[in-house]
Specification:
The chain is α/β, with parallel strands linked by helices. It folds into two domains: 2-120, 3-Layer(aba) Sandwich (Rossmann fold); 128-293, Dihydrodipicolinate Reductase, domain 2, CATH 3.30.360.10. It is built from nine helices and 15 strands. The chain has helices spanning 10-26, 56-61, 73-86, 102-111, 128-138, 168-171, 180-191, 297-309, 321-336, and strands at residues 2-6, 29-34, 40-43, 46-49, 66-69, 90-94, 116-120, 145-153, 195-204, 213-222, 227-233, 240-247, 250-255, 264-270, 287-292. Helix 3 packs parallel to helix 4 (102-111) and helix 4 packs antiparallel against helix 9. The longest helix is centred in the N-terminal third of the chain and has 17 residues, at 10-26.
Length: 338
């Protein structure tokens, strides 16, 4: 499979490292890339020089069949459009989100044909703790679910001040679209049914003062889970990530996301288990299910994408186009709510 990269920043290099680990197993070959800020990359001991120009004619003529896009949000749609128009049969992995907003996502839907595969890098499902929690929910380990809480805090860095990432026109918004889209997508995976918005509270102009929402508190409800709370911020200078799900029989709690967020630890507990244990508190009765730093998330995601393309069974299904479109639609509804 011949692969072409568009964007070779931090995420592009994560993807490239994953491809290097999987190249023999899936016969992968990187044939080129485009990023005006990067002169060359190393592949199989050889230096690949950045293409000087990519357009529809380039995409039509290239031998690549798999494209990996990791660019600022406002560039995503045009690149996907040019690929879809030029390559009747191809596969694309695009970093989240699926365009700058739901309208762009719908335009992509209208361009795409049945021989074109699009996957979106909503990859939190491949963290070991989250994957285990999804399995426990599928097995009804905690009984009927009462509540779901997801909290994510991020602080960027001082270099972000003049970046597109906090520019509403270029990013599409603030914490709701990024990193919130990861959290919203996870919520949809956990719930697996229709989700209704109950309330939202956003804050802006507190620190970055660009007009984007810098913090949000969102409340939802569903038939499966009656109380859902998302709390997302880019004004926390100590990165944090937590998921807690409580059911009638027990609960699951995840802390951490690797990297600056610390090791991801997933633990479970049973209702009132402290009453029949040697401990006099609940936390000491909990079981640690998994601990990981998440180094293999990109490799696991890519491996499952390739298995899907080749018709093999997947351990965890990647984010297909339809799922990503649903997440973009819910994100749009959140922005317009109230």
């Amino acid at each position: 499979m011949n692969i072409f990269f568009i964007g070779m920043g931090n995420m592009g290099h994560h993807r490239l490292r994953a491809i290097k680990k999987l190249k023999v197993k899936f016969e992968l070959n990187v044939i080129g890339f485009y990023d005006p800020t990067v002169a060359s990359i190393d592949w199989n001991g050889k230096k690949i020089i950045c293409e000087t120009k990519i357009d529809r004619q380039f995409f039509k003529n290239t031998m690549a069949s798999f494209f990996i896009i990791g660019t600022p949000h406002y560039l995503i749609y045009e690149y996907i459009k040019d690929i879809l128009v030029s390559k009747p049969s191809c596969s694309i992995l695009v970093e989240k989100p699926l365009g700058i907003n739901f309208n762009e996502a719908k335009k992509i839907r209208d361009l795409k044909n049945k021989n074109q595969n699009i996957f979106v890098g909503l990859n939190y499902r491949y963290f070991k703790g989250i994957s285990a929690l999804l399995k426990d929910l599928e097995d009804c380990k905690f009984g009927e679910i009462n509540s779901l809480n997801i909290s994510m805090g991020h602080g960027h860095s001082s270099k972000i001040k003049n970046s597109w990432k906090i520019n509403k026109e270029k990013a599409g918004g603030g914490v709701i679209i990024d990193p919130g889209i990861h959290v919203i997508n996870l919520m949809q995976l956990f719930v697996g049914s229709k989700i209704n918005i109950v309330a939202k509270h956003l804050t802006s102009m507190n620190f970055w003062k660009t007009g984007i929402e810098e913090q949000c508190n969102l409340l939802f409800e569903s038939k499966k889970i009656p109380l859902i709370h998302l709390n997302i911020s880019i004004l926390k200078w100590r990165s944090s990530f937590e998921i807690s799900i409580f059911g009638n029989n027990g609960y699951g709690i995840i802390n951490g996301r690797g990297s600056h967020y610390g090791k991801q630890v997933y633990r479970t507990g049973k209702r009132w288990s402290w009453e029949s244990s040697v401990f006099n508190n609940q936390i000491d009765t909990e079981q640690i299910v998994s601990q990981s730093l998440g180094e293999d998330v990109f490799e696991s995601e890519l491996e499952n994408i390739l298995k899907c393309l080749l018709g093999f069974d997947c351990e965890q299904k990647p984010c297909f186009f339809g799922e990503a479109l649903d997440t973009m639609e819910l994100t749009s509804k959140i922005y317009s709510y109230g």
